[in-house]
Amino acid sequence: MKKDELTKIYNSKLKELTNHNKLYYNKSKPIISDSQYDKLKYEILNLEKRYKFLKNKKSPNKAVGYKPSKSFEKYKHRVPMLSLSNAFNENDLVNFEKKIFNYLNKKIKFQYSVEPKIDGISASLTYKNKKLLYGVSRGDGLIGEVITENLKTIKDIPRQINMPNFPNEIEIRGEVFIKKKDFFKIKNEFANPRNAASGTLRQKDPNETKKIPLNFIAYTFGFIQNNQFKFQSEFLKELKKWGFKINKHNKILSNIKELISFHKKFEDNKFDIDYDVDGLVYKIDDLNLQNRLGYTSSAPRWAIAHKFSADNAITKIKNIEIQVGRTGALTPVAKVEPVNIGGVIVSNATLHNEDEIMRKDIRIGDFVKIERAGDVIPHVIEVDKSKRDKISEAFKFPSNCPSCGSKTIKEFNLTTKKYDAVRRCTNDGFECERIAIEKIKHFISKEALNIDGFGKKVVENFWNLKLIKKPQDIFKLDYDKIVSLDGWGELSVDNLKNSIENSKNVSLQRFIYSIGVRHIGIENSKLLADNLENILNFTKILKNQNFEKFLNIDGIGETQISSLKNFFSNKFNKDIVIELTSILNIKHEKINKSGILINKNFMFTGKLSGISRAEAKSLIEKNSGTTLSSVSKNLNYLVIGEKPTKHKVDQAKTLGVKVITQDELIKLLN
Ligand code: IVH
User: Fold this and answer.
1) pLDDT tens-place string over residues 382-396
2) How many domains does the chain have?
């Protein structure tokens, strides 16, 4: 038989198999028997074996089952599963401690619980009345997927615990991973052990999960009823008594010097451990102190991951391309000769910005050392100037946007009194093609409208086909046309339609974030949404352009206000947002608050004693109160510390706002 005939047969069999996979895994409605299915799979694998040129990423040899996901039940984590901030050297650790001392307003001594950072997949296990009730994946940190049955196949996870002191209700968290020696046996199916663990864990059929030996090491809790534990290390010991595996390398250390020396020793020997470890986690051992320090929007203040040094390699820069981001930032990217760094083929490296290129004098044709750490985009460490071609010239950064030709500028930063390192396209609307595409990508992203099955590649594709030009076009797609496109079929279009329809119900916070105004990130969008309470209030402010109203919100400043003004002074931007408000069903998600400071607003003036502003603010918020940044009639309490600003106190008194001391605030909190 001829090559193309074989390919045709092979592809049609693959298509058939993919359809059965969908029916089986996604819809749980198989229409052929298991043995018929196995026969089909066998035929495909056999063809591949005989004719080496037959290759496809959908081959059962590569893909395990059909991409699961969509049909797992979603689960809102009782306590978010956040990530950790990273440290790469001693200086980062010193800064980490500095921030802690600032937050606590004094320097204190504490111990660290030191734990290996296993490079796997985190999972959460909820036990009720001593039985494993839910097993959930991390998901986006707020919402995970219920994968209880899959987790139950892991022998390290107890399904029932009969110890008398095991809490009635507890959520235990830890890492699911695969050992190096087990990964070795299936290494053709996955890029690395982490992907192997993740793929296996998210199989629709727990029998598939069972086939691959996964492990679980427990390291923290999300929630404990009647928590009596005082130390992280104490909790870890108890986990072991209850029958969980904990890491045998866990340790208690007392200061940065000890951390550094342990880190070095561990890194030198990390290859002796039979699973991937990408650093050490340092957690303040004292749980009470952890509780005081709390979290930023993405990570705890009381813990840090000290990463091992990244892998690097030498390669040659073939070209420097300029990418244009959503906010107009011009990012230079080096296209390099593909090189293998720690098992991953790298062909792009970020050069960050114009200043970075100048500082390191990076040129096309240069030999450079490139570093790659975890999922971070590889970057250039240094240039080997000895290998440089004599006729090479310094790189000229374009003064016009490579996408739309507009002028580019470096903004002057009023806070730092310096020009930004980043050069930007001055076109802030949708007239710049690259900016427009990036804006749409932001609109559909996970933290924004989160449209399942509508990824970045789909945006690029639909843009090129002129199916979308603005975010709202997503809600007017021509599905008849899409069905006939390469890579799309009835089922996938059906799924897309559904997820687009679902995404129309969106919280005010997500909506504000999705607009993509510079300086209005997740955290600020939440502040604005809490203040606005409904979309009507937002459109009113839009129409009247009186964004100054937001200055009252603690956390929103001149930078945000001027960015909002700038964005909405563009009629195109404004029209898009107005049109979206008529398409979407935007509701403010109020968190059920029940603390004693509910509906009470506070503001501080003067220096507090024994506690930082940040901690005082978070104490108020923990009790459902709000903090404001200026005195107005909306304010309930002005809290005065040492040397308060006189006119603020006077103003408060005139407006009838209660003026209280720090001690009185503590009394309110009881
Ligand atoms: S504690 C809020 N402890 O690292 C802090 N995490 O970047 C919660 N990880 O998603 C995490 N080993 O998957 C913690 N001993 C350890 C860990 C660990 C690995 C992973 C985990 C988490 C990620 C955070």
Assistant:
1) 999 999 988 999 999
2) 5
